[in-house]
């Protein structure tokens, strides 16, 4: 095949891949079509990968095939084995791998020391910086979510240190771009070392409560880094895929931050979520209740709204919760699920778990759709959620979550909170909802409590 024909075939294939990427992303915007969207995007990646082998003068074919086989094999095995409760960790890890791959491309180009235009060198350096930060930062996020890193690390002047690392990385990167004789290997090593350390120091102080925003941010950074390196390699598929991922990740990050009523700078530099924080006093006492009494309350209710949170994920209680919901529906009770945008440890975490359990999409509502219904709800069942139902967000100006949009569960006639213990939630903020007159606490593991509620309803 002539080089001209091959180049044309590759270009057309990349355009087809771009169409499949964008179509897949569009379909992923709805739970109903999300599964098909993943298939469309996957097909696009297959087309782009195959087309790359027809690139004129391409070398290292054997190494590429070995890398694809190893990467694809590991991804297949882990994808099959990973539990839904561990999906946030997997997403964080895969974000990091994408950023690391972009940084590796930049490193290869810079270590070669070949003549490049100033623009190409600048894009290589910029993509390398962003990719390296995303790589090391995502690994730290993985460690936090996997409980390998059990606390956040903060010290006085940490933000100044991070700013100094960023400035040093930018200055060394600029020197690589402007070097008349080409990049010096020692400077390239220093550049990537600084960038990797920056990713670590940026992520270590961020608390687990902010992980949904952090994951989506690193997703955006990874896409941006891949797009920059696509320009370096003159690879249209990388440019398009990176831009699609980067723009989607950026929009998602903005939505997550808005859902928490926090700026991105506040998420990255405030340290919220790593230790107990100051807030107004919470009066009253927690009132325990038995599963049998809750079963009666729910069985004779007209409307029940279930609010899932990370505690449901940890207990892997989604299947039992849906079984309970179906029992109530059989008794004529209207049952709906209310999902807050930042419930769980990644964007859409609760939606994924409920979909795995087979919960129909038409009974799942987001915060803006269902909040008005809590006023005429007989029972709000909270399972593992905390900050997203904390009324301090509306009433306590001293609370770090003041102004954050929440689910108005406290306005229900009765609120039942399934919780493992009496401690504060993951962010360290005491929840005033637990002390209200219309709230009762049902202590225990989420799955075991859901099973007990099922038996209580069946016994009636």
| Largest sheet report | 6 strands, parallel
Classify the helix fraction into a percent range: 55-70%
Q: Classify the secondary structure makeup into a structural class.
A: alpha/beta
- Strands of the largest sheet, in order across it? 3-2-1-4-5-6
Overall radius of gyration:
25 Å
Spell out the helices and strands N to C: HHHHHHHHHHHEHHEHEHEHEEH
- List the total number of helices: 17
Percentage of β-strand residues:
5-15%
Dominant shape: elongated
Report mean pLDDT, rounded to a whole number.
86
Low-confidence region ranges = 272-278
Distance between the termini: 75 Å
Blueprint of the fold:
Elements: H1 3-27, H2 34-52, H3 61-81, H4 87-112, H5 118-145, H6 158-178, H7 185-203, H8 211-233, H9 236-259, H10 264-269, H11 291-299, E1 303-308, H12 310-315, H13 318-330, E2 334-339, H14 349-357, E3 364-366, H15 367-370, E4 379-383, H16 392-395, E5 414-419, E6 439-443, H17 446-458
Parallel strand pairs: 1-2, 1-4, 2-3, 4-5, 5-6
Helix pairs in contact: 1-2, 1-9, 4-5, 4-8, 5-6, 5-7, 5-8, 6-7, 8-9, 11-17, 13-17
């Amino acid at each position: 095949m002539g080089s001209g024909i091959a180049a044309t075939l590759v270009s057309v294939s990349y355009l087809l891949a771009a169409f499949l990427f964008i179509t897949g992303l569009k379909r992923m915007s709805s739970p109903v079509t999300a599964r098909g969207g993943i298939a469309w995007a996957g097909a696009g990646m297959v087309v782009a990968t195959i087309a790359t082998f027809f690139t004129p003068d391409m070398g290292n074919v054997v190494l590429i095939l070995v890398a694809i086989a190893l990467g694809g094999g590991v991804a297949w095995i882990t994808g099959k084995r990973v539990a839904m409760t561990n999906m946030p960790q997997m997403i964080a890890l895969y974000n990091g791998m994408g950023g690391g791959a972009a940084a590796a491309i930049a490193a290869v180009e810079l270590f070669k020391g070949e003549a490049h235009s100033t623009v190409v060198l600048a894009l290589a350096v910029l993509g390398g910086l962003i990719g390296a930060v995303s790589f090391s930062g995502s690994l730290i996020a993985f460690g936090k979510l996997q409980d390998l890193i059990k606390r956040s690390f903060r010290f006085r002047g940490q933000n100044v240190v991070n700013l100094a690392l960023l400035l040093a990385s930018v200055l060394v990167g600029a020197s690589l771009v402007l070097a008349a004789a080409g990049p010096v290997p020692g400077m390239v090593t220093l550049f990537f070392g600084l960038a990797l350390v920056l990713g670590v120091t940026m992520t270590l102080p961020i608390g687990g409560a902010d992980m949904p925003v952090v994951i989506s941010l690193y997703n955006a950074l990874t896409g941006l880094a891949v797009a920059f390196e696509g320009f370096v390699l003159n690879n249209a598929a990388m440019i398009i895929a990176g831009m699609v991922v980067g723009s989607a990740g950026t929009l998602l990050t903005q939505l997550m931050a808005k859902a928490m009523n926090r700026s991105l700078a506040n998420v990255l530099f405030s340290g919220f979520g790593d230790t107990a924080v100051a807030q107004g006093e919470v009066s009253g006492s927690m009132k325990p209740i038995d599963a049998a009494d809750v079963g009666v309350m729910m069985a004779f209710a007209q409307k029940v709204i279930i609010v899932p949170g990370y505690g449901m994920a940890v207990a892997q209680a989604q299947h039992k919760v849906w079984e309970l919901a179906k029992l109530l529906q059989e008794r004529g009770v209207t049952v709906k699920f209310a999902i807050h945008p930042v419930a769980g440890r990644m964007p859409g975490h609760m939606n994924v778990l409920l979909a795995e359990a087979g919960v129909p999409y038409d009974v799942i509502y987001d915060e803006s759709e269902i909040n008005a219904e809590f006023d005429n709800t007989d029972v709000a069942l909270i399972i593992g959620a905390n900050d997203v139902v904390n009324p301090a967000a509306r009433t306590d100006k001293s609370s770090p979550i003041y102004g954050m949009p929440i689910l108005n569960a406290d306005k229900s006639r009765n609120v039942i909170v399934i919780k493992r213990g009496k401690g504060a939630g993951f962010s360290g903020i005491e929840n005033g909802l637990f002390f209200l007159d219309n709230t009762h606490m049902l202590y225990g593991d989420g799955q075991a409590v859901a099973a007990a509620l099922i038996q209580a309803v069946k016994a009636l």
